[in-house]
Amino acid sequence: MSMRIIPTRARFAEGQEPSFIVKGTEKQRLQLSLFRENRLVWHGIKQINEKGMICLNGLSLKSHSGYLLQVDDSGAQIETAFDISTDQVRYGFLTDFSRANADDTAPLEWLNRLHITDVQFYDWAYRHDQLTGPTNDYTDMMGKSISRVTLHTLIGMCHEYGINAVAYGAIYGASHQYAKEHPDECLYDSKGKPVFFFDLLSIMNVERGCAWHDHILSEYQKALDLGFDGIHMDTYGFPEKANDVHGCKLDLARDFRELVNDAKSSLHTSTGAPKLIFNNVKNWPVDYLASAHQDALYIEVWDPYSTYTDILRLIEHARSISDLPVILAAYLPQFIQGGSQKAYNALKILTAIITVAGATHLINGQNRGLLTQAYYSKYFTADAKRAERIVTYYDYIAYLSGLWDDRELHTASVASERAGGRNIIADEDILSDLPKPGWIWARVQEKKDFLFINFVNLMGSRDPKWTHDQNVRQTKPFTFQVRTDKPASSVTYSTPDGEQGIDIRNLEFATQKYGDALYTCIQIPSMYIWGTVIIRL
Questions:
Q1: CB under 8 Å to 419, separation ≥6 — which residues?
Q2: Dihedral angle over CA of 188, 190, 195, 197, nearest 10
Q3: Angle at 374 between CA 368 and CA 376, to 5 degrees
Q4: Which residues does residue 82 pair with via DSSP β-bridges, in sequence order?
Q5: Which among 17, 30, 20 has a CA at the least distance from the CA of 59?
Q6: Closest of 308, 297, 304 to residue 362, by C-alpha
């Protein structure tokens, strides 16, 4: 195995000394380079200690920021990233809790390499209306074997890596037997018939005052008592209208928000209030839940949100109504048929667009798993070689994590031709404000004396749908001019698509004046999918 450097935690807290496990080398010392926002901030030598670790002690590192750590190993670039006290929620999943896997450390090692901060334990429960199993070993409603020993072990591993363990718990799913015994707790349609989730579950009434409301909260507390840090409060996206047992119309969006708020105020973990993530299926009812007392604004994406532009609009709307971190669960059915290059292209393009827009993507989990559908246990396993490129993308996300969700950065308009008030001009008509096929999506964000420009290459694509395979065509180098109104002091470029990983370089630039407007002129190297320019003025 070639050398590998792995952070000991998915994210480091402010004041915590970053440390890393070093594998695959007999060297005693490593010469390291540390980058922040495309600038080399430290270069030096660190000793590998008796535990096979290096520590970045004695460095003045900024909180709410990400870093890239690189080492040159006989010409091979070895790297990892880490961040310190950023607000980004990077969500992953686990779904195998059998006793046979109680000692398997690989799933958490993989999630830690991706810098996943929160992990959803999917379908760990005995039943939807009785989350904790009656014995230490049990089967869930789908016949999957689960061991409480394995659950405890995985939760403990999460905590060792600084990852939050989040228990899946649908807010209103119950067995038909439970519903039959508690008809007053069910939801009913306009004809007075009970509402079902296919033939699997009955749908219950979460309204305050209904016994189910208190029942599900008590089940959530039992889950937290097992050691979980939070609850993934799942919904199925329907019904949007329903009645109670008396035929009275319910305000489901209001009831959902009150359930979340009551969960936050009444439930507890060993360290305080639980982490809560509520599922807004098809973006409903996100406007009501934006003000709920939860820890992220989570949207499960389905039609009619089918295009890359729809993805951008979803995120922009979510960020406009809430300061919470935004997570999109956007599953890729391309991988059901196998891991073609076009499927991996689609994965990387979608992850780049979601990240640049200011959100994170729930897609990665168990055993290099990629989600293809809403039933997480049927995930696709990425091959080892392509999985390493996924790691590079998530290193890149962690490395620039202090910028993706920086609320001080304001988005400026993009244009392909010069006109009054336009901010960016390319030498060819190739840039677009929107991520659409045949164009390079350019997103220009700025704050005082700082521009953050991201490019996502869709020039090889002819299909706007993110659930479809995608072609990629490497761009030629292109020149663009961006309005800066002040002379630039430095221009840097980075990409996760470098030959050996993340490529960072300084770019030459020139200053030109058009009327009263000052422009910085830059040439972008040949680009595969994703490139980032940082301009300091």
A1: none
A2: -150
A3: 35
A4: 67
A5: 17
A6: 297
Structural domains for the chain = 4-84 (2.60.40), 91-404 (3.20.20.80), 410-536 (2.60.40.1180)
Beta bridge partners of 47: 29
Give the helix ranges, DSSP H, for 240-340.
252-266, 286-289, 308-321
Backbone angles phi, psi at 494, to 5 degrees: -140, 155
Q: Locate 452 and state its tokens.
A: 């953050």
Residue at token pair 């709307």: 317
Considering the entire predicted model, what is its pTM?
0.96
Among candidate residues 385, 310, 388, the one with its CA nearest the CA of residue 350: 310
Alpha-carbon distance 55 to 381, whole Å?
A: 33
Quick count: other Cβ atoms within 10 Å of Cβ 467?
17
Per-residue pLDDT of the chain (537 residues; tens, 9 = 90+): 688 999 999 999 999 999 999 998 888 999 999 999 999 999 999 999 999 999 999 999 999 999 999 998 777 899 999 999 999 999 999 999 999 888 899 999 999 999 999 999 999 999 999 999 999 999 999 999 999 999 999 999 999 999 999 999 999 999 999 999 999 999 999 999 999 998 899 999 999 999 999 999 999 999 999 999 999 999 999 999 999 999 999 999 999 999 999 999 999 999 999 999 999 999 999 999 999 999 999 999 999 999 999 999 999 999 999 999 999 999 999 999 999 999 999 999 999 999 999 999 999 999 999 999 999 999 999 999 999 999 999 999 999 999 998 999 998 877 544 434 457 888 888 999 999 999 999 999 999 999 999 999 999 999 999 999 999 999 999 999 999 989 999 999 999 999 999 999 999 999 998 888 899 999 999 999 999 999 999
CA neighbor of 14 nearest in space, from 64, 71, 81, 78: 64
Find out whether 528 and 344 touch, Cβ atoms under 8 Å: no
